[in-house]
Fold this sequence. Notes:
Blueprint: H1 7-23, E1 31-37, H2 44-51, H3 55-61, E2 75-87, H4 94-101, H5 105-111, E3 125-130, E4 138-142, E5 145-149, E6 152-153, E7 160-162, E8 169-170, H6 172-188, E9 194-197, E10 219-222, E11 232-233, H7 245-258, E12 261-265, H8 268-280, H9 285-291, E13 305-306, E14 315-319
Parallel strand pairs: 7-9, 9-11, 12-13
Antiparallel strand pairs: 1-2, 2-3, 4-5, 6-8, 10-14, 12-14
Helix pairs in contact: 6-7, 7-8
The chain binds zinc ion.
Zinc ion binds next to strand 10.
Amino acid sequence: MTAARSFGGVLRIVLASMFLFCASTVKAQVLVTVPCVLIEGETIAEVAVRFGVTPDDLAELNRDTNLSDASVGTEIAVGIGERVEHTVARGETMLRLARRYGVTATDLGRWNSITDARRLRAGARLVIYAWPHLPPSSSIGRPSAGSLEHAVRLRSSPSCVVHDRERAFVTREVATALDAGLRAVREAFPRTPRIEIRDASIEHGGPLAGHHSHQSGRDIDVAYYRHHCDELCAHGRVEPGDLDAERLYSLLVGWLRSGALDYVFIDYDLQGPLYRAAQAHGATYGELARWFQWPHGRDRQAGIIRHASGHRDHMHLRFACGSHDRECRPDRSGTELP
Ligand SMILES: [Zn+2]
């Protein structure tokens, strides 16, 4: 999300919507402030990163709240969004809804007091604060022959360090999904080191030097969580015994379950510990078979998690086409090189 469009943009939207309201030829939108609740261990700077705004923007929107004194549970305004009521259809999950509206599953839960995502029932009415004024970003074409529109830039945050900001562009849905995954790791493991994010795409996509893919805003190279990496887990060769498979699994599991990923390219030798972590955390036999190439050998064309050479020092996430990506071409065969 670009911070630049946040405030001038917000004012213009309020004015524009007042005009629409007066003209009353268009169904009026209810514009409300998107509330965010400060969670345990989270700072105001982190909230700003989470919503793609600056700390100054937050101060401006929350003039009546002393943000430096805000405690856990404090409601903070983070922007102007549209309040949408959504009736849950059969088969819809929190993660799927979060992706559809470009929010996180955690926020959906907070806005609707849902503590157990499995309790979502068809027919339930949810309130969602979406961001209708931002143009949807879209991934066009294939990972190895594509482009990107209205991209958002990944930013360094308390969860990650972005290596090269010119090669850090993705679609908004991918950015939201990445953020949700990184936060899930920190919620499960409070003292998690930051992880290094290497190349995604350039701003408008297209060929990226040094890669075959990374052209359409859905590919991201990410370092592995390792034991003993102190403040930052950076790119670097990882031995199977060094891999922090528990954290890696907690990063991937939400995406695997929600169908957010087409592929994750991980060196075959590192897949074993990850497989065992998945097993230990209750992945079903069917899930393991669907997700993993392991233990069938590095040449077996199966699984979302697959071997590709050159992935001993980082993994390569390839997200699926998103709900806005009408011209996106998925890679169903896994034949597009990372
Ligand atoms: Zn890559």
